[in-house]
Amino acid sequence: QVQLVESGGGLVQAGDSLRLSCEASRRTFSAFTMGWFRQAPGKEREFVAAISWSIGRTYYTYEDSVKGRFTISGDNAKNTVYLQMNILKPEDTAVYYCAAVPFRGAAARRPGEYDYWGQGTQVTVSS
Fold first, then answer.
1. What DSSP string runs through 56-86?
2. Are 62 and 75 in contact (CB under 8 A)?
3. Burial of 64 (0-12, 13-18, 19+ CB in 10 A)
4. Which of 49, 53, 68, 90 has CB atoms 3.0–4.6 Å from 72's, for a disulfide?
5. What is the pLDDT of residues 61-98, one digit of tens each?
6. d(C-alpha 27, C-alpha 11), whole Å
7. Rg of the chain on CA atoms, in Å
8. CA end-to-end span of the chain, whole Å?
């Protein structure tokens, strides 16, 4: 079992930056995929980014609309995954969720592929 707690959301203006954090209750870096998803009102939950660790390698996956603006990273010592979000746009407004699943050899981009979820943190970007 893995508990995930997100933090770092808030209200910012377009062009600003935010860093979201996701602290896990146990070490996940050795063989897990950690993902960030977001869900805007009236829309389905969508993939944002994921990071995976397996056999000494780290894998990164990003949704196209955030490439070059968002960066996912992890701090092994703190059992924490981060999502650095730069050049934020109003369309980035959503509740952001952290998720985890044991590494299964391929990028996990669908919500149904993840076993554990955090409670979410609101990000609001004003124009």
1. TEEEEEE-GGGTTTEEEEEEGGGTEEEEEE-
2. no
3. exposed
4. 49
5. 999 999 999 999 999 889 999 999 999 999 999 999 99
6. 31
7. 14
8. 40
